[in-house]
Amino acid sequence: MTTLDSGLKRVVVTGLGAITPIGNTLAEYWDGLMSGRNGIGPITLFDASRHDCRIAGEVKNFDPQLYMDRKEAKRMDRFAQFAVSASKQALADANFVINDLNAEQVGTLIGTGIGGLKVMEDQQEVFLTRGPDRCSPFTVPMMIANMAAGLTAIQVGAKGPNNCTVTACAAGSNAIGDAFRILQRGFAQAMICGGTEAAVTPLSVAGFASAKALSTRNDDPLHACRPFDKDRDGFVMGEGAGILILEELEHALSRGARIYAEIVGYGMTCDAYHITSPVPGGAGAARAMQLAMKDAGLRPEEIHYINAHGTSTPANDSTETAAIKTALGDQAYKLTVSSTKSMTGHLLGGSGGIEAVATVMAVANNRVPPTINLENPDPACDLDYVANESRSQTVDAALSNSFGFGGHNVTLAFRKYQG
């Protein structure tokens, strides 16, 4: 059977793609996670000398022309280049060919928190210094957030459902969850989904720093992002994209697809509390985890690993720890939790994408990535965070958490595929 008792179709992960600060392919990204590679360093994308925060997790040696021609690349903001590139990687990984026979059954749903901010900043400068007539006719299409999904569909020929989630740092996870729902209900056979972001820009870094959200450990970037550590002082910006190919199970089996894992649960809530701060105690985050487990039909004792939101901010890490305890009870102390942001930085709307990729790979390989830089644990953060070294363990089921400004809470649940 390929449907649940409710009549909903089962959905599996058959392809993965990643453009990240620790590797520009799935293999490089996973190797980086397993080896505890740190992708954070001084900002090189712009002159950050006047900024309070001068470090970020930048994507290195990225060449969009590996995935598209030069003319097409020039007409895309970096966030869209990342999305198209990671999507083409994921399709190739899934050995999935889109053609005239299946194009209308393949959809695209890619989230982003900000969109084409670099283009906006650059064109504003053109407007102010050279006048309105000199602004690029591609300003708006390059800037708007939906273009990651739109351009990906154009590039690969996917004519099915197409959408974009813009829920701050929960956007990538919302995109995956919404794609899961589309497939469960039979409105497509496959979805290209995930998150992307390229917001390491002067205005973005200045804005987050002004809000006192960023680490200012500029002289020690390798130790700046330290989730759950007592000495954490803020998050570090990152950039990149993570993309999953989700397929309805029967469709995947009919073409002999390799299955990484099954996506089984999606929970989302709102704190309805504050524009940037989580509600004390993490009640909203706890409910998102509980809803995802309920949706999946999983009991707390069946969860072996949680890929935490784990931003390295004073408020998030202790609040998320409390939420995990509320949602999973005694199991919170028996499972493992890690924050891969310790290596990549915080990709904002792209974080749910690369972290879902990491979670799926943990399920597929029975390996969990570490939380690096965890040297002086915060007493309020007393779970097993897989400090500093990756670990081999059974991972039959796992959760991936993403929380965003505005009070958005999203949890995805994955488990090993069983026919």
TrEMBL record:
Its EC number is 2.3.1.179. InterPro entries: 3-oxoacyl-ACP_synth-2 (IPR017568), Beta-ketoacyl_synthase (IPR000794), Ketoacyl_synth_AS (IPR018201), Ketoacyl_synth_C (IPR014031), Ketoacyl_synth_N (IPR014030), PKS_Beta-ketoAc_synthase_dom (IPR020841), Thiolase-like (IPR016039). It catalyses: (9Z)-hexadecenoyl-[ACP] + malonyl-[ACP] + H(+) = 3-oxo-(11Z)-octadecenoyl-[ACP] + holo-[ACP] + CO2; a fatty acyl-[ACP] + malonyl-[ACP] + H(+) = a 3-oxoacyl-[ACP] + holo-[ACP] + CO2. Residues 8-416 form the Ketosynthase family 3 (KS3) domain. Keywords: Acyltransferase, Fatty acid biosynthesis, Fatty acid metabolism, Lipid biosynthesis, Lipid metabolism, Transferase. The active site is at C169. One of its GO terms (biological process) is fatty acid biosynthetic process. Gene3D superfamilies: 3.40.47.10. GO terms for cellular component: cytosol. This is 3-oxoacyl-[acyl-carrier-protein] synthase 2. It comes from Thermoleptolyngbya sichuanensis A183.
